Automatic annotation (TrEMBL):
UniProt main location, coarse: membrane
Cellular localization per UniProt: Cell membrane
The name this protein goes by in its record: non-specific serine/threonine protein kinase
GO molecular function: ATP binding; protein serine/threonine kinase activity
The protein's Enzyme Commission number: 2.7.11.1
InterPro entries according to UniProt: BSK, Kinase-like_dom_sf, Prot_kinase_dom, Ser-Thr/Tyr_kinase_cat_dom, TPR-like_helical_dom_sf, TPR_BSK1_C
Top EC category: transferase
SUPFAM superfamilies documented for this protein: Protein kinase-like (PK-like) (SSF56112), TPR-like (SSF48452)
Residues annotated as domain Protein kinase: 59-325
Protein backbone atom coordinates (compact mmCIF):
# COMPACT_ATOMS: atom_id res chain seq x y z
CA UNK A 1 0.00 0.00 0.00
CA UNK A 2 1.97 2.89 -1.29
CA UNK A 3 0.10 6.10 -0.45
CA UNK A 4 -0.94 7.71 2.82
CA UNK A 5 -4.26 6.43 4.06
CA UNK A 6 -6.54 6.75 7.06
CA UNK A 7 -5.10 5.29 10.24
CA UNK A 8 -7.36 2.47 11.29
CA UNK A 9 -7.08 0.23 14.34
CA UNK A 10 -6.70 -3.43 13.52
CA UNK A 11 -3.04 -4.22 13.86
CA UNK A 12 -1.49 -6.23 16.63
CA UNK A 13 2.17 -6.57 17.51
CA UNK A 14 4.90 -5.91 20.04
CA UNK A 15 6.82 -2.64 19.82
CA UNK A 16 9.97 -3.73 21.66
CA UNK A 17 12.56 -6.31 20.75
CA UNK A 18 12.86 -9.22 23.15
CA UNK A 19 15.84 -11.55 23.62
CA UNK A 20 13.65 -14.47 22.58
CA UNK A 21 12.46 -12.98 19.30
CA UNK A 22 14.79 -15.19 17.29
CA UNK A 23 12.72 -18.10 18.59
CA UNK A 24 10.03 -18.76 15.98
CA UNK A 25 7.64 -20.04 18.60
CA UNK A 26 7.25 -16.45 19.83
CA UNK A 27 6.32 -15.29 16.35
CA UNK A 28 3.76 -17.90 15.45
CA UNK A 29 0.23 -16.57 16.00
CA UNK A 30 1.83 -13.39 17.32
CA UNK A 31 1.80 -14.68 20.87
CA UNK A 32 -1.29 -15.57 22.85
CA UNK A 33 -2.88 -12.11 22.62
CA UNK A 34 -2.80 -11.97 18.85
CA UNK A 35 -3.81 -15.59 18.56
CA UNK A 36 -7.04 -14.66 20.30
CA UNK A 37 -7.47 -11.42 18.35
CA UNK A 38 -7.09 -12.78 14.83
CA UNK A 39 -9.96 -14.81 13.40
CA UNK A 40 -9.33 -17.99 11.46
CA UNK A 41 -9.33 -17.91 7.67
CA UNK A 42 -12.76 -16.89 6.36
CA UNK A 43 -14.50 -17.07 2.99
CA UNK A 44 -16.12 -13.65 2.71
CA UNK A 45 -19.18 -12.95 0.60
CA UNK A 46 -18.87 -10.36 -2.16
CA UNK A 47 -21.69 -8.34 -0.56
CA UNK A 48 -19.75 -8.00 2.70
CA UNK A 49 -16.61 -6.78 0.91
CA UNK A 50 -18.55 -4.38 -1.29
CA UNK A 51 -20.12 -2.79 1.77
CA UNK A 52 -16.77 -2.69 3.59
CA UNK A 53 -15.11 -0.83 0.70
CA UNK A 54 -18.10 1.36 -0.23
CA UNK A 55 -18.53 -0.62 -3.42
CA UNK A 56 -14.79 -0.67 -4.16
CA UNK A 57 -14.79 3.10 -4.23
CA UNK A 58 -11.83 4.80 -5.89
CA UNK A 59 -11.47 6.82 -2.68
CA UNK A 60 -10.49 3.62 -0.86
CA UNK A 61 -7.68 2.56 -3.21
CA UNK A 62 -4.37 2.35 -1.34
CA UNK A 63 -2.31 0.52 -3.96
CA UNK A 64 -2.72 0.13 -7.68
CA UNK A 65 -0.65 -1.63 -10.32
CA UNK A 66 -0.58 -1.65 -14.07
CA UNK A 67 -0.53 -4.36 -16.70
CA UNK A 68 2.33 -6.31 -15.12
CA UNK A 69 0.41 -6.74 -11.88
CA UNK A 70 -3.24 -6.20 -12.77
CA UNK A 71 -4.75 -5.82 -9.32
CA UNK A 72 -5.87 -3.12 -6.91
CA UNK A 73 -5.77 -2.99 -3.09
CA UNK A 74 -8.56 -1.22 -1.20
CA UNK A 75 -8.88 -0.31 2.45
CA UNK A 76 -12.13 -1.44 4.03
CA UNK A 77 -14.03 -1.50 7.28
CA UNK A 78 -16.09 -4.50 8.32
CA UNK A 79 -19.31 -4.06 10.25
CA UNK A 80 -17.53 -5.37 13.38
CA UNK A 81 -15.09 -2.45 13.20
CA UNK A 82 -12.13 -4.46 11.92
CA UNK A 83 -10.05 -2.73 9.25
CA UNK A 84 -9.03 -4.79 6.25
CA UNK A 85 -7.01 -4.54 3.06
CA UNK A 86 -8.77 -6.10 0.07
CA UNK A 87 -6.74 -7.10 -2.98
CA UNK A 88 -8.94 -7.40 -6.06
CA UNK A 89 -7.55 -9.24 -9.06
CA UNK A 90 -8.65 -8.47 -12.59
CA UNK A 91 -11.31 -10.71 -14.12
CA UNK A 92 -8.91 -12.83 -16.16
CA UNK A 93 -6.73 -13.79 -13.19
CA UNK A 94 -7.13 -17.13 -11.43
CA UNK A 95 -9.78 -18.64 -13.75
CA UNK A 96 -9.86 -21.79 -11.60
CA UNK A 97 -11.71 -20.86 -8.41
CA UNK A 98 -10.67 -24.05 -6.63
CA UNK A 99 -7.00 -23.39 -7.31
CA UNK A 100 -7.36 -19.84 -6.03
CA UNK A 101 -9.19 -20.96 -2.88
CA UNK A 102 -6.67 -23.70 -2.12
CA UNK A 103 -3.74 -21.31 -2.52
CA UNK A 104 -5.42 -18.64 -0.38
CA UNK A 105 -6.22 -21.12 2.38
CA UNK A 106 -2.62 -22.29 2.46
CA UNK A 107 -1.40 -18.71 2.91
CA UNK A 108 -4.26 -18.01 5.33
CA UNK A 109 -3.06 -20.77 7.65
CA UNK A 110 0.00 -18.66 8.46
CA UNK A 111 -0.25 -16.50 11.57
CA UNK A 112 2.70 -14.38 12.67
CA UNK A 113 3.23 -10.96 14.20
CA UNK A 114 5.81 -10.39 11.47
CA UNK A 115 3.18 -10.70 8.72
CA UNK A 116 0.24 -8.58 7.65
CA UNK A 117 -1.77 -11.79 7.89
CA UNK A 118 -4.27 -13.08 5.34
CA UNK A 119 -7.72 -13.16 6.98
CA UNK A 120 -9.72 -14.64 4.12
CA UNK A 121 -10.75 -14.47 0.50
CA UNK A 122 -13.73 -14.29 -1.83
CA UNK A 123 -14.19 -16.20 -5.08
CA UNK A 124 -17.83 -15.66 -6.07
CA UNK A 125 -18.44 -15.96 -9.79
CA UNK A 126 -15.45 -14.44 -11.59
CA UNK A 127 -14.40 -12.36 -8.57
CA UNK A 128 -11.06 -13.18 -6.92
CA UNK A 129 -10.28 -11.19 -3.78
CA UNK A 130 -7.87 -11.53 -0.86
CA UNK A 131 -8.58 -10.01 2.57
CA UNK A 132 -5.73 -9.14 4.93
CA UNK A 133 -5.03 -7.13 8.06
CA UNK A 134 -4.87 -3.43 7.30
CA UNK A 135 -1.60 -1.73 8.21
CA UNK A 136 -2.23 1.97 8.91
CA UNK A 137 1.27 3.46 8.81
CA UNK A 138 2.26 3.20 5.16
CA UNK A 139 5.07 1.31 3.45
CA UNK A 140 8.83 1.11 3.79
CA UNK A 141 9.07 2.87 0.42
CA UNK A 142 7.18 5.85 1.85
CA UNK A 143 9.29 6.12 5.02
CA UNK A 144 12.60 5.37 3.32
CA UNK A 145 12.38 7.08 -0.07
CA UNK A 146 9.65 9.71 0.31
CA UNK A 147 10.02 10.92 3.90
CA UNK A 148 8.84 14.41 4.75
CA UNK A 149 10.10 15.46 8.22
CA UNK A 150 13.13 13.26 8.92
CA UNK A 151 14.90 10.24 7.40
CA UNK A 152 14.48 6.79 8.89
CA UNK A 153 16.81 6.23 11.83
CA UNK A 154 19.59 3.66 11.54
CA UNK A 155 18.22 1.60 14.44
CA UNK A 156 14.85 1.42 12.68
CA UNK A 157 16.47 0.32 9.42
CA UNK A 158 18.23 -2.49 11.25
CA UNK A 159 14.95 -3.49 12.89
CA UNK A 160 13.19 -3.58 9.52
CA UNK A 161 15.88 -5.91 8.16
CA UNK A 162 15.69 -8.14 11.25
CA UNK A 163 11.88 -8.36 11.32
CA UNK A 164 11.80 -9.05 7.59
CA UNK A 165 14.33 -11.85 8.01
CA UNK A 166 12.19 -13.29 10.81
CA UNK A 167 9.11 -13.13 8.58
CA UNK A 168 10.91 -15.04 5.83
CA UNK A 169 12.25 -17.61 8.29
CA UNK A 170 8.76 -18.16 9.69
CA UNK A 171 7.33 -18.65 6.21
CA UNK A 172 10.13 -21.10 5.36
CA UNK A 173 9.40 -23.08 8.53
CA UNK A 174 5.77 -23.42 7.36
CA UNK A 175 6.67 -24.56 3.85
CA UNK A 176 6.06 -21.16 2.18
CA UNK A 177 9.61 -20.19 1.23
CA UNK A 178 8.59 -18.57 -2.05
CA UNK A 179 7.79 -14.86 -1.91
CA UNK A 180 7.01 -13.03 -5.14
CA UNK A 181 8.48 -9.64 -5.93
CA UNK A 182 9.88 -8.68 -2.51
CA UNK A 183 10.38 -4.91 -2.49
CA UNK A 184 9.98 -1.84 -0.28
CA UNK A 185 6.25 -1.61 -1.05
CA UNK A 186 5.72 -5.06 0.48
CA UNK A 187 6.90 -3.93 3.92
CA UNK A 188 4.07 -2.29 5.89
CA UNK A 189 3.95 -0.68 9.32
CA UNK A 190 1.28 -1.53 11.88
CA UNK A 191 -0.24 0.78 14.52
CA UNK A 192 2.76 0.24 16.81
CA UNK A 193 5.15 1.16 14.00
CA UNK A 194 6.40 -2.43 13.74
CA UNK A 195 7.33 -3.52 10.20
CA UNK A 196 5.42 -6.45 8.72
CA UNK A 197 5.69 -8.39 5.49
CA UNK A 198 2.59 -8.28 3.32
CA UNK A 199 0.99 -11.70 2.90
CA UNK A 200 -0.05 -10.82 -0.65
CA UNK A 201 3.44 -11.62 -1.97
CA UNK A 202 3.04 -15.22 -0.83
CA UNK A 203 0.64 -15.67 -3.77
CA UNK A 204 1.31 -14.92 -7.39
CA UNK A 205 -0.52 -12.07 -9.07
CA UNK A 206 -2.42 -14.70 -11.01
CA UNK A 207 -2.17 -18.35 -11.98
CA UNK A 208 0.06 -17.51 -14.93
CA UNK A 209 1.10 -14.06 -13.74
CA UNK A 210 4.61 -12.69 -13.63
CA UNK A 211 6.39 -13.12 -10.32
CA UNK A 212 8.24 -9.83 -10.66
CA UNK A 213 6.53 -6.59 -11.57
CA UNK A 214 9.43 -4.29 -10.77
CA UNK A 215 12.36 -3.24 -12.96
CA UNK A 216 14.20 -6.31 -14.25
CA UNK A 217 17.46 -4.77 -13.02
CA UNK A 218 16.41 -5.87 -9.53
CA UNK A 219 15.36 -9.43 -10.34
CA UNK A 220 17.51 -12.46 -9.42
CA UNK A 221 19.82 -13.70 -12.21
CA UNK A 222 18.23 -17.16 -12.23
CA UNK A 223 14.78 -15.66 -12.76
CA UNK A 224 16.08 -13.94 -15.87
CA UNK A 225 17.28 -17.32 -17.15
CA UNK A 226 14.44 -19.63 -16.14
CA UNK A 227 11.45 -17.45 -15.15
CA UNK A 228 11.19 -19.42 -11.89
CA UNK A 229 11.35 -18.16 -8.32
CA UNK A 230 13.15 -20.21 -5.70
CA UNK A 231 13.88 -19.73 -2.00
CA UNK A 232 17.31 -18.46 -3.03
CA UNK A 233 15.67 -15.91 -5.31
CA UNK A 234 13.87 -14.50 -2.30
CA UNK A 235 17.18 -14.12 -0.46
CA UNK A 236 18.55 -12.21 -3.47
CA UNK A 237 15.59 -9.84 -3.22
CA UNK A 238 16.29 -9.52 0.50
CA UNK A 239 19.77 -8.35 -0.48
CA UNK A 240 18.27 -5.60 -2.63
CA UNK A 241 16.19 -4.57 0.40
CA UNK A 242 19.37 -4.29 2.48
CA UNK A 243 20.79 -1.97 -0.20
CA UNK A 244 17.63 0.13 0.05
CA UNK A 245 18.05 0.40 3.82
CA UNK A 246 21.75 1.26 3.52
CA UNK A 247 21.43 3.87 0.81
CA UNK A 248 17.95 5.31 1.25
CA UNK A 249 17.64 4.85 -2.50
CA UNK A 250 16.59 2.06 -4.86
CA UNK A 251 20.01 1.21 -6.30
CA UNK A 252 20.33 -1.56 -8.90
CA UNK A 253 22.32 -4.47 -7.38
CA UNK A 254 24.89 -4.49 -10.19
CA UNK A 255 25.78 -0.86 -9.55
CA UNK A 256 25.89 -1.39 -5.76
CA UNK A 257 28.17 -4.43 -6.14
CA UNK A 258 30.52 -2.39 -8.31
CA UNK A 259 30.79 0.20 -5.52
CA UNK A 260 31.35 -2.54 -2.95
CA UNK A 261 34.11 -4.19 -5.00
CA UNK A 262 36.12 -0.95 -5.07
CA UNK A 263 35.27 -0.38 -1.38
CA UNK A 264 33.49 2.88 -2.20
CA UNK A 265 31.14 2.52 0.77
CA UNK A 266 30.67 6.26 1.25
CA UNK A 267 28.92 6.58 -2.10
CA UNK A 268 26.65 3.67 -1.23
CA UNK A 269 25.68 4.89 2.25
CA UNK A 270 22.75 7.27 2.84
CA UNK A 271 24.25 10.71 3.47
CA UNK A 272 21.45 11.36 5.99
CA UNK A 273 23.03 8.73 8.26
CA UNK A 274 26.40 10.46 8.44
CA UNK A 275 27.48 10.63 12.07
CA UNK A 276 24.77 8.20 13.18
CA UNK A 277 26.28 4.92 12.08
CA UNK A 278 29.55 3.20 12.94
CA UNK A 279 31.84 1.83 10.27
CA UNK A 280 31.51 -1.64 11.77
CA UNK A 281 27.70 -1.62 11.48
CA UNK A 282 27.79 -0.38 7.92
CA UNK A 283 30.45 -2.89 6.95
CA UNK A 284 28.47 -5.76 8.48
CA UNK A 285 25.33 -4.90 6.56
CA UNK A 286 27.28 -4.41 3.32
CA UNK A 287 28.89 -7.83 3.85
CA UNK A 288 25.49 -9.45 4.40
CA UNK A 289 23.99 -7.75 1.33
CA UNK A 290 26.93 -8.98 -0.75
CA UNK A 291 26.34 -12.56 0.38
CA UNK A 292 22.65 -12.30 -0.53
CA UNK A 293 23.45 -10.92 -3.99
CA UNK A 294 25.79 -13.71 -5.07
CA UNK A 295 25.26 -14.66 -8.69
CA UNK A 296 25.19 -18.37 -7.86
CA UNK A 297 22.02 -19.10 -5.87
CA UNK A 298 23.66 -21.87 -3.82
CA UNK A 299 26.18 -19.39 -2.39
CA UNK A 300 23.54 -17.24 -0.74
CA UNK A 301 22.62 -17.61 2.97
CA UNK A 302 19.27 -19.06 4.03
CA UNK A 303 16.63 -17.19 6.03
CA UNK A 304 17.75 -18.64 9.38
CA UNK A 305 21.29 -17.44 8.74
CA UNK A 306 19.94 -13.97 7.97
CA UNK A 307 18.15 -13.84 11.32
CA UNK A 308 21.25 -14.96 13.22
CA UNK A 309 23.41 -12.36 11.47
CA UNK A 310 21.02 -9.47 12.05
CA UNK A 311 20.11 -10.09 15.68
CA UNK A 312 23.67 -9.37 16.78
CA UNK A 313 23.73 -5.83 15.34
CA UNK A 314 20.37 -4.51 16.54
CA UNK A 315 20.43 -1.06 18.18
CA UNK A 316 18.18 0.67 20.71
CA UNK A 317 16.25 -2.53 21.26
CA UNK A 318 14.21 -1.12 24.16
CA UNK A 319 12.92 1.86 22.14
CA UNK A 320 9.43 1.25 20.70
CA UNK A 321 9.17 1.16 16.93
CA UNK A 322 6.73 4.06 16.77
CA UNK A 323 9.33 6.27 18.49
CA UNK A 324 12.09 5.21 16.09
CA UNK A 325 9.74 5.69 13.14
CA UNK A 326 8.65 9.11 14.37
CA UNK A 327 4.91 8.47 14.31
CA UNK A 328 2.18 8.93 16.88
CA UNK A 329 1.26 5.81 18.79
CA UNK A 330 -2.42 4.93 18.58
CA UNK A 331 -4.91 6.51 16.25
CA UNK A 332 -8.33 8.06 16.32
CA UNK A 333 -11.44 5.94 16.29
CA UNK A 334 -12.00 4.80 12.71
CA UNK A 335 -14.90 6.36 10.84
CA UNK A 336 -18.08 4.37 10.70
CA UNK A 337 -18.75 2.57 7.42
CA UNK A 338 -21.61 3.62 5.22
CA UNK A 339 -24.51 1.56 6.57
CA UNK A 340 -26.55 0.64 3.54
CA UNK A 341 -30.23 -0.18 3.72
CA UNK A 342 -31.74 -3.18 1.96
CA UNK A 343 -32.36 -0.97 -1.06
CA UNK A 344 -28.79 0.35 -0.98
CA UNK A 345 -27.32 -3.14 -0.86
CA UNK A 346 -29.51 -4.18 -3.80
CA UNK A 347 -28.23 -1.16 -5.75
CA UNK A 348 -24.62 -2.02 -4.94
CA UNK A 349 -25.19 -5.54 -6.29
CA UNK A 350 -27.24 -4.22 -9.23
CA UNK A 351 -29.87 -6.73 -8.08
CA UNK A 352 -32.75 -5.79 -10.35
CA UNK A 353 -34.99 -8.56 -9.02
CA UNK A 354 -34.69 -7.24 -5.46
CA UNK A 355 -35.30 -3.67 -6.65
CA UNK A 356 -38.40 -4.82 -8.54
CA UNK A 357 -39.77 -6.36 -5.36
CA UNK A 358 -39.03 -3.18 -3.39
CA UNK A 359 -40.74 -0.89 -5.92
CA UNK A 360 -43.69 -3.26 -6.21
CA UNK A 361 -44.11 -3.35 -2.43
CA UNK A 362 -43.78 0.43 -2.07
CA UNK A 363 -46.44 1.12 -4.68
CA UNK A 364 -47.35 4.76 -5.17
CA UNK A 365 -47.19 5.97 -1.57
CA UNK A 366 -44.23 8.21 -2.36
CA UNK A 367 -46.36 10.10 -4.88
CA UNK A 368 -48.43 11.50 -2.04
CA UNK A 369 -48.02 15.24 -1.77
CA UNK A 370 -46.75 15.61 -5.33
CA UNK A 371 -48.55 18.48 -7.02
CA UNK A 372 -50.04 16.87 -10.09
CA UNK A 373 -50.74 19.15 -13.00
CA UNK A 374 -54.27 18.24 -14.02
CA UNK A 375 -55.80 19.82 -17.09
CA UNK A 376 -59.47 20.65 -17.63
CA UNK A 377 -59.67 17.44 -19.65
CA UNK A 378 -59.17 15.32 -16.52
CA UNK A 379 -62.65 13.81 -16.74
CA UNK A 380 -62.57 13.41 -20.49
CA UNK A 381 -61.72 10.36 -22.56
CA UNK A 382 -58.10 11.53 -22.70
CA UNK A 383 -57.84 11.31 -18.91
CA UNK A 384 -59.36 7.86 -18.92
CA UNK A 385 -56.89 6.72 -21.56
CA UNK A 386 -54.02 8.02 -19.43
CA UNK A 387 -55.27 6.14 -16.38
CA UNK A 388 -55.70 3.01 -18.49
CA UNK A 389 -52.09 3.33 -19.64
CA UNK A 390 -50.99 3.45 -16.02
CA UNK A 391 -53.03 0.38 -15.07
CA UNK A 392 -51.76 -1.60 -18.05
CA UNK A 393 -48.22 -0.51 -17.26
CA UNK A 394 -48.61 -1.62 -13.64
CA UNK A 395 -49.88 -5.01 -14.75
CA UNK A 396 -46.92 -5.43 -17.09
CA UNK A 397 -44.55 -4.24 -14.35
CA UNK A 398 -45.89 -6.87 -11.93
CA UNK A 399 -45.38 -9.51 -14.62
CA UNK A 400 -41.85 -8.20 -15.32
CA UNK A 401 -42.84 -7.55 -18.92
CA UNK A 402 -40.45 -4.64 -19.21
CA UNK A 403 -41.07 -3.84 -22.89
CA UNK A 404 -44.85 -3.54 -22.46
CA UNK A 405 -44.40 -1.59 -19.22
CA UNK A 406 -42.10 0.89 -20.93
CA UNK A 407 -44.66 1.45 -23.72
CA UNK A 408 -47.56 1.94 -21.30
CA UNK A 409 -45.68 4.21 -18.89
CA UNK A 410 -44.46 6.25 -21.88
CA UNK A 411 -48.09 6.74 -22.97
CA UNK A 412 -48.93 7.86 -19.44
CA UNK A 413 -46.11 10.42 -19.38
CA UNK A 414 -46.90 11.65 -22.87
CA UNK A 415 -50.53 12.22 -21.82
CA UNK A 416 -49.37 15.21 -19.79
CA UNK A 417 -52.27 15.13 -17.37
CA UNK A 418 -50.34 13.82 -14.34
CA UNK A 419 -46.79 13.84 -13.01
CA UNK A 420 -45.67 10.75 -11.10
CA UNK A 421 -42.11 10.13 -9.86
CA UNK A 422 -43.06 6.49 -9.25
CA UNK A 423 -43.90 6.03 -12.93
CA UNK A 424 -40.46 7.34 -13.87
CA UNK A 425 -38.86 5.07 -11.26
CA UNK A 426 -40.71 2.03 -12.57
CA UNK A 427 -39.89 2.81 -16.17
CA UNK A 428 -36.28 3.40 -15.11
CA UNK A 429 -36.11 -0.12 -13.69
CA UNK A 430 -37.71 -1.54 -16.83
CA UNK A 431 -35.05 0.21 -18.91
CA UNK A 432 -32.38 -1.36 -16.70
CA UNK A 433 -33.98 -4.78 -17.17
CA UNK A 434 -33.79 -4.17 -20.91
CA UNK A 435 -30.09 -3.16 -20.86
CA UNK A 436 -30.92 0.48 -21.62
CA UNK A 437 -28.89 2.11 -18.86
CA UNK A 438 -28.67 5.56 -20.47
CA UNK A 439 -32.46 5.81 -20.77
CA UNK A 440 -32.76 4.53 -17.19
CA UNK A 441 -30.47 7.29 -15.95
CA UNK A 442 -32.63 9.89 -17.69
CA UNK A 443 -35.77 8.62 -15.93
CA UNK A 444 -34.07 8.49 -12.53
CA UNK A 445 -32.94 12.07 -12.95
CA UNK A 446 -36.43 13.10 -14.02
CA UNK A 447 -37.82 11.50 -10.87
CA UNK A 448 -35.35 13.57 -8.87
CA UNK A 449 -36.50 16.77 -10.62
CA UNK A 450 -40.10 16.02 -9.61
CA UNK A 451 -39.18 14.99 -6.06
CA UNK A 452 -35.71 16.35 -5.12
CA UNK A 453 -35.58 14.69 -1.67
CA UNK A 454 -36.76 11.26 -2.79
CA UNK A 455 -34.16 8.57 -1.93
CA UNK A 456 -35.46 6.16 -4.60
CA UNK A 457 -34.53 8.60 -7.37
CA UNK A 458 -30.93 8.63 -6.19
CA UNK A 459 -30.86 4.88 -5.59
CA UNK A 460 -31.91 4.25 -9.18
CA UNK A 461 -29.42 6.80 -10.47
CA UNK A 462 -26.68 4.83 -8.72
CA UNK A 463 -27.75 1.58 -10.39
CA UNK A 464 -27.84 3.23 -13.82
CA UNK A 465 -24.42 4.78 -13.23
CA UNK A 466 -22.96 1.47 -12.03
CA UNK A 467 -24.35 -0.15 -15.20
CA UNK A 468 -22.67 2.54 -17.30
CA UNK A 469 -19.34 1.93 -15.58
CA UNK A 470 -19.37 5.34 -13.88
CA UNK A 471 -18.44 4.03 -10.43
CA UNK A 472 -17.42 7.29 -8.76
CA UNK A 473 -20.67 9.02 -9.74
CA UNK A 474 -22.62 5.93 -8.75
CA UNK A 475 -21.01 5.96 -5.31
CA UNK A 476 -21.95 9.60 -4.80
CA UNK A 477 -25.55 8.92 -5.77
CA UNK A 478 -25.65 5.93 -3.41
CA UNK A 479 -24.29 8.01 -0.53
CA UNK A 480 -26.84 10.76 -1.22
CA UNK A 481 -29.68 8.23 -1.29
CA UNK A 482 -28.52 6.73 2.02
CA UNK A 483 -28.36 10.16 3.66
CA UNK A 484 -31.83 11.12 2.41
CA UNK A 485 -33.32 7.87 3.62
CA UNK A 486 -31.70 8.29 7.05
CA UNK A 487 -33.04 11.84 7.20
CA UNK A 488 -36.53 10.67 6.23
CA UNK A 489 -36.50 7.92 8.88
CA UNK A 490 -35.58 10.45 11.59
CA UNK A 491 -38.57 12.65 10.75
Amino acid sequence: MGVPCSKFLFCCGHSQLKPSLHDLSDLENGGENEKNALPSFTEFSLDVLMIATDGFSADNIVSEHGEKAPNVVYKGLLQNGHCIAVKRFNRSAWPDSRQFLDEAKAVGNLRSERLANLLGCCCEGDQRLLVAEFMPNDTLAKHLFHWESEPMKWAMRLRVAFYLAQALEYCCSKGRAIYHDLNAYRILFDQDGDPRLSCFGLMKNSRDGKSYSTNLAFTPPEYMRTGRVTAESVVYSFGTMLLDLLSGKHIPPSHALDLIRVKNFSTLMDSCLEGHISNDDGTELVRLATRCLQYEARERPNAKSLVNSLITIQKETEVPSHVLLGIRHGTATPPQPLLLTTTGEACLRIDLTALHEILQKTGYKDDEGIANELSFQMWTNQMQETLNSKQQGDAAFRAKDSITAIECYTQFNDGGTMVSPTIYARRCLCYLMSDMAQEALGDAMQAQVISPEWPTAFYLQSVALFSLGMENDAQEALKQATKLEAKRNKN
